[in-house]
Design goal:
Layout (H helix, E strand, L loop, with lengths): L3 E4 L3 H13 L4 E4 L2 H7 L7 E5 L7 H11 L5 E5 L4 H9 L4 E4 L4 H16 L19 H12 L7 E4 L6 H10 L8 E5 L5 H9 L16 H4 L4 E5 L6 H13 L1 E2 L8 E2 L3 E6 L3 H6 L5 H7 L2 E4 L10 H16 L5 E2 L1 H9 L5 H15 L4 E2 L6 H4 L7 H8 L1 H14 L6 H15 L5 H20 L4 H8 L3 H10 L5
Parallel strand pairs: 1-2, 1-3, 3-4, 4-5, 6-11, 6-12, 7-8, 8-11, 13-14
Antiparallel strand pairs: 9-10
């Protein structure tokens, strides 16, 4: 077995590590500087090298660069008493296996060396050409039903309604339906009806004529015209404003529409695929969704299962996502240990497939070795039986609603010092990590609405006085009230 090489100008550090590794029956060689290491490489090679970052006659980062040129697969651990950001970044950019700040716990250092040793002696498999990832994966029965439905619809342009929790892959299914249809040669246009303010959504869908409203300096084609001859995907259709539901119903019924401010009908040659995480039947009972529109959309319904309902697919999906992330970053794909696969399979994934993909991207960047162990998993997965917090589950399952709830709580805790700012920052970090779209708009709109409601309540609805209290102009508060729908 090749030796573990320790490089440090501090004799006490070399002595402590030598003794600790020897107690584990691991062979060790020590060096006082980088020159000795380079000279020893003529006749020998290490299995793992542990080096200080700053030494007389050549630092650890320079040694790391030289070693990566000569022995690119050698795991190198960089030690330093200068625990600064630049050193850590430089170490990882240079290809270090791990960064170990001094003073360190000896057992932690030994464990880290063992991990590096496992990486060094692992059996290297012949490199194979990575096959292109399929557009969708799934062995579970529910996913096979979805695949069969897509296959059966390949010669049809019928309207389809896709239901399933947030993050379950509804847009992927919509794209697959488009790709395997007679309209595949046409455009695929997607719009999230929940992410666009009510006042802008009509123009986004149907376009507008020049001068039809303030700011309409030129005519603009809407998504229906952009998708002409192809497919229009209406995501989160359950959140569409009621009056716009009427216009959508008319397009589906008559095959034509009018731009905002327009007088000439525009023919619609578009296949509509809609998706929602909500129960539309319940929305119809509540009077929030038109029953006739529901029946127009519900010609063919495809239900996507939550990831916790298809646990047999988790390992398959995780390996595919690790391959995808590695390709995007230009690195070798990480491999999951059996224990890590078991832990991933146990987790409930409130954010579904999207959350699993983000976890795999996190592992590609953050896991120290090529083999991912339980301890390498993100905090919500690493601990036994650890489940996401309520806030995490809410933001992953329904980001917009969770944000509204968060900001409401922030307003109620303003008297509690900076705690609400910390929580806001944490929630923002979670949203960014989990891939929630348009984080800025989601948080800002809810925060502004809470501020304005509070100011109006304190002035008994007097807008000018509320604007003065907030330090904004009266035109600004009027515009914000309209944009946020606070006058409804």
């Amino acid at each position: 077995m090749k030796s573990i090489w320790i490089v440090d100008d501090d004799h006490s550090i070399r002595f402590v590590l030598e003794k600790a590794l020897a107690r584990q029956d691991l062979p060790v060689r020590s060096f006082a500087n980088a020159r000795e290491v380079l000279a020893a490489l003529v006749d020998d090679q290490p299995s793992v090298l542990v080096s200080d970052i700053r030494m007389p006659g050549g630092g650890g980062l320079d040694l790391l660069t030289e070693l990566k040129q000569r022995l690119p697969a050698l795991p190198v651990i960089i030690m330093t008493a200068y625990s600064d950001l630049d050193s850590a970044v430089a170490a990882f950019q240079g290809g270090a296996f791990e960064y170990l700040p001094k003073p360190f716990d000896v057992s932690t250092a030994v464990d880290l060396v063992r991990r590096a040793l496992q990486e060094s002696v692992r059996e290297v498999q012949p490199t194979e050409q990575q096959a292109a990832l399929p557009e969708m994966l799934g062995q579970a029965g529910a996913m096979q039903d979805v695949f069969r439905a897509i296959g059966r619809l390949n010669q049809s342009a019928v309207t389809v309604l896709i239901t399933g929790e947030s993050g379950s892959g509804k847009e992927l299914v919509a794209r697959a339906l488009h790709k395997h249809s007679p309209r595949s040669g046409g455009p695929f246009v997607a719009i999230n009806t929940a992410a666009i303010p009510k006042d802008l959504l009509e123009s986004e869908l149907f376009g507008h004529e020049r001068g039809s409203f303030t700011g309409a300096a030129a005519a603009r084609r809407g998504r229906f015209e952009q998708a002409d001859g192809g497919t229009l995907f209406l995501d989160e259709i359950g959140d569409m404003p009621f009056d716009l539901q009427t216009r959508l119903l008319r397009v589906l019924s008559d095959g034509q529409f009018y731009r905002v401010g327009g007088v000439n009908a525009v023919a619609s040659h578009v296949r509509v695929i809609a998706a929602t995480h909500q129960n539309l039947e319940e929305r119809v009972k509540q009077g929030a969704f038109r029953e006739d529109l529901f029946h127009r959309l519900n010609v063919i319904r495809l239900r996507l299962p939550a990831l916790r309902e298809r646990r047999e697919d988790i390992a398959l999906l995780a390996r595919a996502f690790l391959q995808k992330s590695a390709k995007e970053l230009g690195v070798e794909p990480k491999r999951l240990s059996d224990a890590a696969v078991a832990r991933l399979t146990e987790f409930d994934y409130p954010g579904n497939v999207r959350q699993l993909e983000n976890i795999c991207h996190w592992l590609t960047v953050m896991a120290p070795s090529q083999s991912v162990e339980i301890g390498d998993l993100p905090p919500e997965l690493a601990g036994t039986g650890t489940a996401p917090t309520v806030a995490q589950a809410q933001v992953l399952a329904n980001p917009i609603a969770a944000t509204a709830s968060l900001v409401q709580g922030v307003g109620e805790r303003v008297g509690g010092g900076t705690d609400w700012l910390d929580q806001l920052e944490q929630e923002c970090n979670r949203m960014l990590l989990t891939g929630v779209p348009e984080v800025w708009d989601a948080l800002t709109r809810q925060f502004e609405a809470r501020l304005i409601r509070s100011a109006l309540a304190s002035t008994r609805g007097r807008r000018i006085e509320a604007a003065q209290k907030l330090g904004i102009g009266r035109n600004t508060i009027t515009r914000k009230i309209q944009e946020l729908g606070l006058d409804e």
